[in-house]
Amino acid sequence: MRQERKEDLSVYYYINDLFSGDSITTVDGFPESNLELPSVAVEATTVEPIKFELGNRNRVRIRTWYIYVFAQTKAQRDEIGYRILDSLEQCIPVYDYDEGFPPDTTPTNLGCLNVDYLKMEIIRVMPELVDKLYYRAVISFTAQFDQLN
Description:
This protein has helices at about 5-20, 75-85, and strands at about 25-30, 40-50, 60-70, 90-95, 110-125, 135-145.
C-alpha cells in the first residue's frame, strides 16, 4: 500500500476514534448513499510536492484533507466541528496498514502528520433545495508527514 493511502486511512481512523462511543457515523470519502445524521466524512484531496533543498530533487509533500460535518441542528454541527478542530491541534499518528486494520491488529506507528493550516467553514443549505433540512460544515487542513527516526 502506498504511503499516501496509509496517511488517508490514518486520518479516517483518527476521526473515527474521536467519535467512538457516540452515535455519529464516520465515512471514508464523501457519502454517496443515504445520508445518516449526524455524520462526518473524511476526504483526502490535494498532494502538493514542494522543493525542499536547493540542488536536489527531494520534495516535501504537503497534503490537504476535508472533513465534512452533517448534523441535525446548528448546535450539533458546531459541537462536532469544534471537537474536530481541537483534536487536530495535535499530530495525527500514521500507521502501517499493510500489517492489518484495527481492532484486529495494532499496526506499527510510522510517524505523524503535522497539521500546518486548519480552517472550519459553515456551509449554508437552502431549505428550498433539500427535502430534509440539515446543517453542514467543512473542516480543511493541510499536513506534512514527519517520519519517526
